[in-house]
Amino acid sequence: MSVPVQHPMYIDGQFVTWRGDAWIDVVNPATEA
Which InterPro entries match (predicted)? Predict the structure, then answer.
């Protein structure tokens, strides 16, 4: 287990926690819309 299931990441000046491809919503919400 080299990479945790979820870990914080600093994106766009915001501290967000991304899990799998959940971070895509933060980086590009248009992918879901």
Answer: Ald_DH/histidinol_DH
